[in-house]
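My current task is to audit a protein record that another person submitted. What it holds is a sequence and that sequence's fold in token form. Thanks in advance; the entry in question is below.
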Amino acid sequence: MPLLIALLAPLLWGSTYALVSLYLTDYSPYWVAVWRALPAGVLLLLLHPRWPPLTWSRQFLLAFCNITAFFALLFVAAFRLPGAVAGTLGATLPLILMALAWLQDGKRPTLKWLLLGLMGLAGVLLLLNPSANLDPVGVACALLATVLIGQSSRWMQRWPVSDLLALTAWQLLLGGLMLIPIAWWLAGPMPMPHLASAPAFGWLILLNTALAYWAWLWGLKRHGPEVMGMLALTNPMVAVSLGVLMVGESLDGRQWLGIGVILLSLFLMKLPARPFFKRWQTRKAATGKVDNG
């Protein structure tokens, strides 16, 4: 059950690309980002009225990186790239988390997590349509958004917070408020959403944002960034699957193989490191002592 709660976030986020492609292409991506974050934050604060659980400086920093900048970049990528391409670039998250831990804390990735990260990325690469249009602006936005979510995940995992619902609410509220001047500057005055888009915005606000962001924070505290980074590989799987079911796309044998590789990497994640590697490391250390002796 704990792993299923943590899985809610990437599974729900995987619906973003199909949702945008089918129902929200008439809107500016910046205003869609505002409408996604701000109502979700207000709703959560109405349900759970609390003060921010972090200092104001940390709360604003987290809200800007994890919501304001991330949402703006994510929606630009979603509007400019096919879902499979955007999802593939987001699948670099496990490797980005390892790189950040190495650069910032001097913590080298273990062989198990490095191989699993590369295996998962290889599986997502197999999902990519070779004929997809690789828009350079969309690619840059997707990669930068992934770096921001990786850095924010490290902060959230390291900073002591007990009230995750309040943390989620204030992130979305402050992040949504900071998005308003950006959207106004880049896309002009706020347009009025169409009534026909209400179901799409309802899904986007309630499930894709309010519930998913709480589940992501809960998973980070419960499982750590390495596990959550690997679970994030289910995001492109959902994006591609919804593309098949809802947008009329199709999968070939190579793409089905990619799905199998991703599922295998997630299965291996739950297994302990192979005793072979432990024996190999012990034997290597003992050989080194003999040689030095």
Summary: The mean pLDDT is 79. The CA atoms of residues 18 and 242 lie 6 Å apart.
